[in-house]
Amino acid sequence: xxxxxxxxxxxxxxxxxxxLLQDAEARRAVDPILWKIDDDAPTQIEKALTFALTAxxxxxxxxxxxxxxxxxxxxxxxxxxxxxxxxxxxxxxxPGLILPDSFAAPGASNGTVDALVAAAEKAxxxxxxxILLSSYVTGQxxxxxxxxxNYAPLTLYLSRSDLGDTAPPATVRPATEADVPGIxxxxxxxRKNLIQIDPFWETHPEADARFGxxxxxxxxxxxxxxxxxxxxxxxxxxxxxQPASRLHFPPAHDITGTGVxxxxxxRDLTDIATLDGGExxxxxxxxxxxxxxxxxxxxxxxxxxxxxxSKIALLEGLGYETAMVWSIKRG
Length: 331
Hints:
Blueprint: E1 4-7, H1 13-30, H2 41-54, E2 62-69, E3 72-81, E4 96-98, E5 103-104, H3 112-126, E6 132-136, H4 140-148, E7 151-160, E8 172-174, H5 180-197, H6 207-218, E9 225-229, E10 237-243, E11 258-266, H7 279-294, E12 299-305, H8 309-317, E13 321-329
Parallel strand pairs: 4-6, 11-12
Antiparallel strand pairs: 1-2, 2-3, 3-4, 3-5, 6-13, 7-12, 7-13, 8-9, 9-10, 10-11
Helix pairs in contact: 1-2, 5-6
């Protein structure tokens, strides 16, 4: 019997908490450090659902849909309109993203996952999304469903769960305001590579100015560490280590011990296909890891385009493994 797919309501919250706890347990089984479950997970899930389903003012559009069979919920899918970062052009508007806290119960009917994905795609398109993205952590049925619908990897989130075993390299130093122009110049080269990899990363005409302003502000933020290598007038590279956010981690998970490395580039990575040495780029990553470890973090994500083999090779050589994949629908 095919499930009924409908929008979630506040009456579903209790059943959704149970489904989403099972979903979180599946991720924790893959990596108990990265996907640590919050001691108060049921309450955190309930709070997040209540806000998503009732709040009139929200920072972005969320969509929760459920699969129902014989009066019982057998699945859930969570999606959102993803705000375009200010350094990217976003000519097609905010993409629609299917989030990883989507789950089908073990006893759900065959086809439940496909039905949920189809419903989420339609809801996102009805909300104005012209680009569709999916995120995947675990569950072969979800991976297969996305593949059948022509999703292809766009971004990899590579992780280590054993930070703290490396001293900060002496060649890497804290960034200062004098380094901001060099960071912006190195970021521009990074963005040049991104647009070669995929037109999804089309750069905003004011990207340099916007990124420079954000880097200057970031120097004053106490929750992150900015590191550079090379002289200020000719930087070899930069890296920023910061706390994880709820964009990548559902509310069931405790993210206090996890960091994210997103803004990162080094001249070793200029060639997308082949790693040129890699010692300088590796030193930046080790410096970021050491900074996170000093803050009590034991795991991190490094954000990496799926079409950048030299960057993937660098990270895998440092012990990173792919923990989550964001994919884009092709055609």
